[in-house]
Amino acid sequence: MEQAIQRLMDFIDASPSPFQAVDNLVGMLDAIGAQALDEGQIWQLEPGAVYYVCRGGSSLIAFRMGLKAPAEAGFLLAGAHTDSPTLKIRPEKELQSKGYMRLALESYGAPILSGWLDRPLGLAGAIAVRLKEGIDSRFYISHEPCAVIPNLAIHLNRDINKGFEYNLHQHMPAIFGLVHSEEEATSASSSGTPEILLRIATELGIEPRAIVSADLRLFDAEPSRLIDGSLVNAPRLDDLAGCAAIMEAFVEAGAQAATQVACFFDAEEIGSMTLGGAQSSYLRDILARITLASRNSGQDFYRALSHSSCISVDASQAWHPGYPDKFDEFYTPVLGGGVAVKSNANMNYATDFTSLRIAEAAAAKAKVAVQHYMARADIQPGKTIGPITASRTGITTVDVGHPLLAMHAIRETIAASDHLDMIAFLRAFYS
Fold first, then answer.
1. Quick one: which of 136, 221, 309, 418 is 20 to 30 A from 390 by CA?
2. What is the reported pLDDT for 2?
3. Quick one: pLDDT band at residue 295, thresholds 50, 70, 90?
4. Which residue ranges form the domains of the chain, and what is each CATH number?
């Protein structure tokens, strides 16, 4: 248990943005001899071999070829998302006020804003750099905290503990330094490059003018913690815990008749309509190309889809003892109770009365418990990649997740035992 949970926490701490998450997942695949594929090349695929395809630097699909052709045995897919709610910076917009240097921010997804205040924050993401041979991408992490978003003193906001709405444009720009002199301020502004990009260029050892664009987001600089040996408290558990569980199970699974697929999509928190999101052609393209490379006939791709099953892995709301009125007690998982299977009448989740059998079969084989989550009848839950995947591919899909507290907070909490159950559940599914 200690090793698996430590691997989870190490993965989260090393993955402050989707770019680092995918880079770390690729490292795990490289360690087992997986081969990188280029979408612009012809693919030659061997039974039992492991391959992967990245798209956009923040999405990844890995697969292990089955011992039978996809048209005969289909695909076994499990998917999660690499992104989490956060605050992205607007790097070209430089804010200075009475000597404070501030970062203009915008919300990515729907983060709980209050948790981002008064704590040391790092900066991470990707930089597009112009080189002689063209545009290249560089990943960036500030290895020391570099910003803070300070609250207003309670003496000036006496009602803050009665509820306060933070204005992202006015209250939330992060302080990342001080201008120590008028000469320094003039020098920075005359360079034509915002101070934050000047600092990043210095760290990366490149000329500031070589930076074409940047995708940078703040992250909690405090590392993941194990509380009382049973609770994992960490940033981005939604959904890096799902990514970690899928990759652990995928790496450990041996080749089977079916082709095993592990999907890690970006942009779930903002609707998935990006180059590498679940709404894109990405997954369908890869599945079609796998089939085409398997000496297929014209109908084999569609035959393969009909033989396939999919598990969408995303965090599930867990019972919160401080807010019992927000849950349907009959349909609410608890921390430590096992994998949560998620259902919704309006199909915000892909689980239906037929796909439920996928979860039941995997749980029985893994000998792990499952719980069931449905939101109160007067509350609509968030959506996952499950319904998107099912509708775009026609593959029977079930939605599951780690029971989780404080979803979309800067730090969330799961039970360590539930993560182990999720790995065992997915390993059983892949086999």
1. 418
2. 86
3. confident
4. 2-84+235-430 (3.40.630.10), 86-220 (2.30.250.10)
Q: Whole-model pTM?
A: 0.95
**Is 188 a residue whose pLDDT tops 70?**
no
| Distant-in-sequence, close-in-space partners of 134: CB < 8 Å, separation ≥ 6 | none
Share of the chain above pLDDT 70, in %: 97
In this predicted structure, the answer to whether residue 388 has a pLDDT above a threshold of 80 is yes
Bridge-partner residues for 231, per DSSP? 227, 415
- The backbone region for 98, taken as left when phi is positive above 0, alpha when psi lies in -120 to 50, beta otherwise, is left
Strand intervals (E) in 162-258: 174-178, 211-220, 225-227, 231-234
Strand 86-97 and strand 309-313: pairing? unpaired
The DSSP annotation for 242-262 comes to: HHHHHHHHHHHPPP-SSEEEE
Structure tokens at 341: 């299977």
Across 154-179, average pLDDT? 93
User: What DSSP state is assigned to residue 215?
Assistant: E
**Alpha carbons 150 and 173: distance in angstroms, whole number:** 9
Geometric angle at alpha carbon 279, from 277 and 280, rounded to 5°: 70
pLDDT tens sequence across 273-287: 999 999 999 999 999
Type and span of the H or E element at 52: strand 50-55
What DSSP element (H or E) covers 131?
strand 121-131
Query: What count of Cα atoms within 13 Å lies in the side-chain half-sphere of residue 253?
Result: 35
Those residues whose C-beta lies under 8 Å from the C-beta of residue 359, and which sit 6 or more positions away, are 311, 339, 341, 351, 370, 398, 400, 425
| Tens of pLDDT, residues 234-291 | 999 999 999 999 999 999 999 999 999 999 999 999 998 999 999 999 999 999 999 9
- For 365, the enclosing helix (H) or strand (E) is helix 356-366
Residues 271/356, Cβ–Cβ less than 8 Å: no
Task: Tell me the two tokens of residue 10.
Answer: 């190490």
**CA 16 vs CA 54, 58, 94, 256, 358: distances in Å:** 18, 12, 23, 34, 32
Type of residue found at 410: I
Sign of CA dihedral 120, 125, 126, 127: negative
Residue 213 tokens read as 């664009």
What is the C-alpha to C-alpha distance for residues 340 and 324, in angstroms, rounded to an integer?
18
Enter the DSSP assignment of 25.
H
Tokens of 374: 């449905």
Helix, strand or coil for residue 370?
strand
CA distance 4 to 40: 36
